[in-house]
Design brief:
This protein is α+β, with helices and mostly antiparallel strands. It has helices spanning 5-11, 25-36, 55-69, 76-79, 103-124, 139-145, 175-178; strands spanning 47-52, 83-90, 128-130, 152-161. It binds flavin mononucleotide.
Length: 192
């Protein structure tokens, strides 16, 4: 085992406030390359990524996000990071799995694995990559803004850059709380 991998995973975190400091092009390429090498169901690689650096486009995204979330101002998390990455899912890939397979799960799990690969590569470079789930109500408007065709979804716009905030504490459930052996032990399940 690579001794440092768990440390790298703990180093990754989600910032919500970013400096405007640029991300080096070589670093961006490494992060995208990490995404490229993610596993995906049937190796179908159902993703398309839009790298966004244009200030007006970032502001348009922030304004739509504010509209979708009922916020009065466009959030800085979409205007201040030097790079946003819109994650697009090509839904046509879902039709290419056999009918008995849960295609939606496979496609979105593949997307998650790609974002995590990019997050870890970013963390190893001292860069933060944060998720930004897009509210349902503005989905079509965001797609239109970025000229994403109907047969694609755009579930997330990632923010990439250097945090302009202290890291907050973020805990995880203990292994003993969620790992079960042989059968699930419902008496240990948490209240939700
Ligand atoms: C699929 C997914 C969607 C997320 N969407 C958002 C989001 O819309 N806004 C946000 O602030 N954080 C979002 N997050 C970040 C989580 O809130 C964060 O990972 C979690 O609180 C743990 O904190 P950490 O990443 O700093 O360790 C998302 C994370 C994942 C994996």
């Amino acid at each position: 085992m690579d001794e440092d991998i768990i440390e790298l995973m703990k180093k990754r975190w989600t910032a919500r406030k970013f400096k405007t400091k640029e991300v080096d092009e070589d670093d961006l390429e490494i992060i995208l390359e990490a995404g490229r090498w993610s596993p995906s169901g049937g190796n179908k690689q159902p993703w398309e990524l839009i790298v966004i650096k244009d200030e007006k486009t970032k502001l348009d995204i922030a304004e739509l996000y504010a509209e979708g979330m009922g916020m009065s101002n466009p959030p800085e998390r979409y205007t201040s990071p030097p790079v946003l990455i819109a994650v697009c899912v090509d839904k046509r890939v879902m039709d290419s799995y056999p009918d008995m397979m849960p295609a939606e799960f496979v496609v979105y799990a593949s997307i998650g694995s790609m974002v995590q690969n990019m997050s870890l590569a970013a963390a190893s470079l001292g860069i933060t990559l944060s998720w930004g789930t897009q509210p349902e109500g503005i989905k079509e408007e965001v797609k239109e803004l970025l000229e994403v065709p109907d047969y694609m979804e755009l579930p997330d716009i990632l923010q990439l850059g250097y945090p302009d905030q202290e890291r907050y504490s973020s805990s995880r459930r203990e292994l003993a709380e969620f790992v079960h052996y042989d059968k699930i032990d419902v008496s240990r399940l948490r209240e939700i």
